[in-house]
Amino acid sequence: MLLATAAVAAFYLNRAGNPLPAAAPASVDDPGTPYVADVEGWYQITPQERAVTTRFDLGLSALPGSLPMQIGAWRGSTLPPSPDIAEWFDNPQVAIERQYVDDSGDVMWLAIFGSAGSKSYHLFEHTPQTCYPGTGWNILRQDVDRIPIGDGAIYAQRGLAVKDGQRLLVLYWYMWDNFERDAERGVLSFRLTAPILTDEAHTLQAMKAGFLSQIFTHVLDWRRF
C-alpha cells in the first residue's frame, strides 16, 4: 500500500510548476512565512490548494515552541496527550494538543500533528471523519468550507459531530513548508475543534475570524496549475 501511495504522490509532484513565491514584505509582528495548505494529503492535490502566510514558524523542527500560548486574545493551555495518538500516528514528530479560551468564554481545541518520511502517511489515514465514530460521535455533516484570510481564503474539511446532546464543529487541513509537498520534509495535520455553546454560526465565526485570523495573515496570489 505504501508503494502505491508513494507512486500516486510522485505523479502529482512531477507536475509541479514554479516554486512558491516569496512572501510579501511584512513587519516584525508579521513575518509572513509561506506555507501550502490543502484539504487532502499525498493522494490528491485539490482545487482548494492555497499558499498562505503565517505569523509563526510552523516548521517541524520549530514546533511546538514557535507557536505561543497567547494568540491574540486567546489564552492557551496544554491538554493531556491523547493515548491513541502515538498508535494512530506512529509517534509523530510533532504532537500539539491545546485548549484556547478568550474573555467571551469561547473555547477552541487545537491539535497539530506532524511527521516526515513514511510516517507522514499515517496523518492522512486517521481523520476526524474516520476516528470520531469509533469514540461514539456521530458525524452529521462533512463538507469543504472557506476560511477568509485577509483578501483571500484557505479551505478546510468541516465536520459537525454530535454525541449525547453535545455538538462539535471541527475544521481540518494539511500544511507543507515547500511547494513540492515533499514527504521527506514533512507535513502538518492541522485541526481546530470547538464545542457549540450557543449556536453553530457563532462558533464557526469564532473559529475563523476570531482564532484562525490571528495565526494566518495573507493568501498569496499563486496557483499550482
Describe what you observe in this structure.
By secondary structure, the chain is α+β, with helices and mostly antiparallel strands. It has one domain (2-219). The protein has five helices and eleven strands; from the N terminus they run αββββαββααββββαβ. It has helices spanning 2-13, 85-88, 122-125, 128-131, 200-211; strands at 33-38, 50-54, 70-71, 74-78, 94-101, 107-115, 138-149, 152-163, 166-176, 187-195, 216-219. Strands 1, 2, 3, 4, 5, 6, 7, 8, 9, 10 and 11 form an eleven-stranded antiparallel beta sheet that branches. Strand 5 and strand 6 (107-115) form a beta hairpin.
Strand-helix topology:
Elements: H1 2-13, E1 33-38, E2 50-54, E3 70-71, E4 74-78, H2 85-88, E5 94-101, E6 107-115, H3 122-125, H4 128-131, E7 138-149, E8 152-163, E9 166-176, E10 187-195, H5 200-211, E11 216-219
Antiparallel strand pairs: 1-2, 1-9, 2-11, 3-4, 4-5, 5-6, 6-10, 7-8, 8-9, 9-10
